[in-house]
Amino acid sequence: MSEEIPLSPIGREEIHKLEYALLVGTLFRPEVLEELRNPSERLTWVDSLAVAAAAIAREKAKMTISQIAEDIGRTESTIRNHLTGKTKAGQLVRQTLEKFLREGVKIDLPSTKELEELKVRLEEERKKSQKLEILLQEVKNSLKDLVEKLEKI
Predict the structure, then answer these.
(1) How far is 150 from 137, CA to CA, in rounded Å?
(2) What is the pLDDT of residue 108?
(3) Are both 51 and 19 inside the same structural domain?
């Protein structure tokens, strides 16, 4: 299903459509997916990308920095940093917007087959992890027994 995404939004509904497209389009970029692999940074990254997408979508709707800051509950400084590309998130979302302007809004999501294959691989990795946990516990128990025997000598 295809939905038209306005690149110069007018009104809340169009702003939200562009914001969503910018966020999703940026999240599926290879360099962003790589950054998201680090679990300690994941939440911060996703939040920064969401704020940058919200700010840029509202900028395209001709909102001022103070209006954007008030609308999404962030400081004007934060908004300005995203809009001027002082943040990595702002740079990436801006690049996604530029791509949309050049090529139209095209977001390539994984196919159902790819998602199923990924699900199978994840399940296999989960099972391997469980087996390793069991082996690790057995090794710990064996070492504990060995230490106890050595202490008796």
Answers:
(1) 20
(2) 58
(3) yes
